[in-house]
Each structure stands twice: as C-alpha cells, then as structure tokens.
Amino acid sequence: MSKVIFHAGHHPAVLAPGATLSEFPVRGGGPVRDARGRPLHDLRISVTDRCNFRCTYCMPREVFGSNYEFMPHSALLSFEEIARIAGVAVGLGVQKIRLTGGEPLLRRDLEILVGMLSRLRTVDDRPVEITLTTNGTLLAKKARALKEAGLSRVTVSLDALDDQMFERMSDSHVSVKTVLNGIEEAARVGLAPVKVNMVVRKGLNDQQILPMARHFRHSGHILRFIEFMDVGKTNGWNLQEVVSGAEILERISAEFPLEAISASYRGEVANRWRYRDNAGEIGLITSVSQPFCGDCTRARLSPEGKLFLCLFASQGHDLRTLVRSGASDAAIAAHFTGIWSQRDDHYSEIRGRETANREKIEMSYIGG
Ligand code: SAM
Ligand code: SF4
Ligand code: SF4
Predict the structure, then answer these.
(1) Domain count, the chain
(2) pLDDT tens across 31-41, in order?
(3) Residue 297 has pLDDT above 50, yes or no
(4) How far is CA 331 from CA 41, 85, 284, in A?
C-alpha cells in the first residue's frame, strides 16, 4: 500500500508514500495549519463545568442556580481519555496545555492528570508546558501536589481586593485573603511567576484597578487586566460596560509610569507593560478593543470531549465518540487535522451588535 487517505471532514489527510501510520501526521505532513494559516500551538482543556463561584459575568446565579443541570460524571472524559487526546494534539504541534473549567480544582485528583500530561514531549522534543487557571479557593491546599506532578505555572482570577466587591463579583462568601493565600503558596512552591487575572466591568469593579496595581507591584506576580467579553449568552454583555485596555493603561500610568515590553512568543494574548521603576510587569488582554484572531493558535477541549475552535463558537466537534469507539491514535490525529485545517474562526474581528446576541457556548463550560 503506497498511501493511506483519511477522510477527515472535507479535506482528506494524505499519508506520504512509504510513511507508517505512527509517523502521521507530524513527520509525514508537518504541523497542521488552519484555513487562515494559523498553526495549532495551545490546547485549553476544560475538566469540569462546575464551579464554587457564581461570577456575574460568567455563571450568573439566575441561570446557574440550584435547578441548573450540570454534566453527569459519566459524560466527562476520563483522565486517560484527556491525556490521549492531548497526546494527539501535541503530535500536531501543541506546545502548551492549560487546564481550566468551571473551576478545575473541583475535579478530584487533578494532579494525576497533570502528571500524565507532563510526560508529553513536543514535536521538537521539549517538555510540554502545563498551566492551570483557577479561582484560587483550593490553591493553597493543592499547590504543592500540582507542582510535584509537573505543573509549570498557574493563573489565578481575582477581580477585587476589597472583600465586599469581591463577594459581589464572585457571588460567593469566599474572602480575598483565601485567594491571596493561594497565590502566595503557589509562588512559594515554585509555580511562578503567578499571573493574576482581573476582569474589569465598568461601574462595578473598575475602582479596584489602582488598588490591585498597587498591591501586586513588587510582588513578582503579573497582574493582567481583561476586558469584559461577550462570551456565552447569559451574562448580559454590553459594550458600555467594557473598560478598554487603553483606558486601564492610562489610569495606571498616571500614577506609575509604564513602558511596553515585546511579546514573548507569537500568539501571546496579553500586551505586556513594565513599571519604569522596576516594580514588575502587568498585562492587558484586549480581546474586545484590539482583537488578536490573526495570531490565535488555540484549540479548546470541553469536559465531555468536544473540540471548539473559538471561544465564541456555538458548536464543537465531538471527539469522545471516536475515542470511545476504539479508534487508533492515527485516526484521531487525522480527524483532528481535518477539523483544524478547515478552521476559519475570527469572531473578535467581526464583533458587533449583531454578534453579541449569537448563540455561543458558556465560558464556564469551555474555560477562558
Ligand atoms: N474558574 C477558573 C477561574 O475563574 O480562573 C477558570 C475558568 S474561568 C472561565 C477562566 C477565566 O475566564 C477567568 O480568568 C475569568 O475571569 C475569565 N472570564 C470569565 N467570563 C469572562 C468574561 N465574560 N469576560 C472576560 N473574561 C471572563
Ligand atoms: Fe467560576 Fe471562573 Fe466562571 Fe468565576 S470565572 S464563575 S470562578 S468558572
Ligand atoms: Fe481566537 Fe476566536 Fe478569540 Fe479570535 S475570537 S482570538 S479566533 S478564540
């Protein structure tokens, strides 16, 4: 047999003559690119759709209340299934894996999954970088085990330093101190530098921009401000509630002068800035005011094994059925390649009044 053709979507993936299935597709076909020429570099894996917070911009309690039906455990991918899909994705060029959710630390024994993923090697034989985004409530307890299992770094979400405002944003009774302890413990065990994500919503927590900046200067942690996005369909997004990255920058630099730092790699989502007095750096994630779809190299895997090609997609591509049918790695790789090669998503570049009301997946299901 001189060549094997995988019928994956509309684009058959062709194995080069003489190549074996185990060589496909990385050594046979090279890293995959989508319809806009974007490679696949990052995989975000949502390990649960559950969360112990009800952040108003993500899981408003009116929608995610006591009657809300979360996924049954049997629907979730097992750690073995996740690791298998991740391994295939790494073979197609993924260099970085981020675990997210819902709240990923609610998934029991997450460090076991971290251990499995940390054994993966990139196509150029380097370790895959494994990171985690968490609301930090369970981090102080879990940080050491996660580090020992091979986690590289963490990103912790924190939208206010003031307890009352934090309770309002997260709609929980967790104290700011609990999250700060998680951040400190993560840094202490070596999950550093810790990134701290603050979603800014105008008229709500934007008065916390400066207190947050002051608090994290000189800490070694990197504070990143995120423009409030129209993800999902439940958070009542409105452009008037977005504080642009430019405005955030203006407010901070009025007190602490800043200068730009260049991106550390193609596709980095944050614009990086450094305090001129060497007090550290901050980031701005300006997905609304300055879309970065042209460099978007991220695929997202949902808790039940659907592959999403964009944060604002309405539909995913089911991988669980294929994995549970006993398909070979090569067949999964071919399917994945077919899906990625047709990817044309660039939602943030076409965002407008009409798109805000489109059917979209929820952030709490697919992760940030
Ligand atoms: N529960 C974890 C956490 O909060 O870090 C991980 C999942 S959460 C969905 C991932 C990130 O998405 C968080 O940093 C959160 O602040 C951000 N996020 C959620 N909804 C958002 C929105 N509407 N606009 C901007 N960022 C959002
Ligand atoms: Fe939970 Fe994170 Fe969403 Fe907040 S942003 S509700 S912590 S998943
Ligand atoms: Fe990537 Fe979609 Fe966000 Fe554009 S809108 S940067 S394609 S996730």
Answers:
(1) 1
(2) 899 999 999 99
(3) yes
(4) 20, 11, 39
